[in-house]
Amino acid sequence: MTTTQAGPVADAPQASPPAQARRRGLGGRLLDQLERFGLVVLLIAVALFFTFLPATSAVFPTSANLRNVAANESILVVVALAALVPLVAERFDLSVGATVGLAAIVTGKLLTSGAAPTLVAILAGVLVGALVGLVNGIVIAHYNASSLVITLGMATLLQGVGSYLTGDTTLLGMPQSLLDFGNLQWLGIPRPVWLFVLLALAIAFVLGMTVFGRRLLAIGSNEAAARLVGMPVSRTVLLAFVVSGALAGVAGILVLARTGGASAGVGAGYTLPAVAAIFLGSTTIRPGRFTVAGTLVGVFFVAISVNGLTLAGAQDWVDPVFNGGAVVLAVAAAAILAKRRLGSAR
Q1: How far apart (Å, rounded) are the C-alpha atoms in residues 235 and 3?
Q2: Domain 38-345, CATH 1.10.3470 — does that match?
Q3: CB contact set of 283 (below 8 Å; sequence gap of 6+)
Q4: N- or C-end of the chain: fewer Cβ atoms within 10 A?
Q5: DSSP string covering 192-259
């Protein structure tokens, strides 16, 4: 008769995780929350800093200043939303700024020449933007061309077209109804803010709740797998660029409404800040993903910071340095977060 002795591991009850592992788990959760909302917390901290800083406390927290910041950033928000849509599918659109300029110029010429009523001229500007997106989309989606190269070339081409159309002059004399939209308020809130909020909600809905949005996310996550399951990748990418161009056209109309004029190269300065906002936004709320909420946080983090620094007496070079630095830091942070997730997955 033989006896079998069970080992101590088999006989002993299953042990609970050690205290060190529990502490590591708690620390990991805290780190995850910091990762998700760190930029939001930093935005609040920056706003509080300039609220109480003696050099800016008299002006920065006033409703007039905050309304001005929101209204001024309305154009950039729409441009960032335009660049965001194809970027969800891992395609860059570096022509959004130049498309803004061309849409503004086309609409401005129609309005100042009296060739079309205001509404028709506005629709023409949006259509021009959509057509630019269509051309980008055809070349990039159907011929598998580099989105960086194609849209950068398109941006250069559009700036030349804008210079030709304006004769290197500034188009002035926009109708008062358009200027009123850009500079007056509804219920104490600048009218352009209402527009960008509606557009942000619409894009968030499209990306999160529609088949088109889910396809974009799938393509951005794993394009090869998306093709294998039969997704219309080319058609989806093409439509993303059309939406991007149309939104850039809307931003061009806002430029006219806010400034009352258009000239060659008027939109060129929006591309880098828009990309900076998107990449900054990819480090917050849903880290590693390009989202509307994150993009808005990115836009206003840079805007509030630059506004506060300007009120504190910073020189003109602060704005481009801050935007360029934001791009570098955001891309680096996104890479670090991706590496951290890959390590934890293993």
Answers
A1: 71
A2: yes
A3: 35, 38, 39, 294, 330, 333, 334, 337
A4: N
A5: HHHHHHHHHHHHHHHHHHSHHHHHHHHHHH-HHHHHHTT--HHHHHHHHHHHHHHHHHHHHHHHHHHH
Rounded CA-CA distance 125/128 in Å is: 5
Q: Supply 145's token pair.
A: 């061309």
Distance from C-alpha of 3 to C-alpha of 51, rounded to nearest angstrom: 79
CB 115 within 8 A of CB 285: no
Long-range contact set of residues 190-197: C-beta below 8 Å, sequence gap at least 24: 190/67, 190/70, 190/71, 190/74, 192/71, 192/74, 192/75, 192/254, 192/257, 192/258, 193/67, 193/70, 193/71, 193/74, 195/74, 195/78, 195/250, 195/254, 196/74, 196/77, 196/78, 196/81
For 234-330, list the strands marked E by DSSP.
none
Spell out the SS3 assignment of 93-127: CCCHHHHHHHHHHHHHHHHHHCCCCHHHHHHHHHH
* CA quadruple 332, 337, 340, 341: dihedral, nearest 10: -140
Rounded Cα–Cα distance for residues 247 and 122 (Å): 12
Question: What tokens were used for 49?
Answer: 């800093």
Which residue is associated with the tokens 């498309």?
99
Query: Tens digit of pLDDT for each residue in 215-271?
Result: 999 999 999 999 999 999 999 999 999 999 999 999 999 999 999 988 888 888 899
Alpha carbon of 91 to those of 120, 123, 157, 176: distances in Å? 31, 26, 19, 38
What is the Cβ-side half-sphere exposure of residue 278, based on CA atoms within 13 angstroms? 25
DSSP label of 170: -
Tell me how far apart the alpha carbons of residues 149 and 61 are, in angstroms, rounded to a whole number. Answer: 42
pTM over 0.70: yes
Confidence (pLDDT) at 31: 62
Residue 230 DSSP SS3: coil
Using DSSP, state whether 171 is helix, strand or coil: strand
Residue 159 CB neighbours (<10 A): 20
Chain centre to alpha carbon of residue 245:
14
Domain boundaries, the chain: 38-345
Query: In DSSP terms, which residues pair with 185 in a beta bridge?
Result: 190
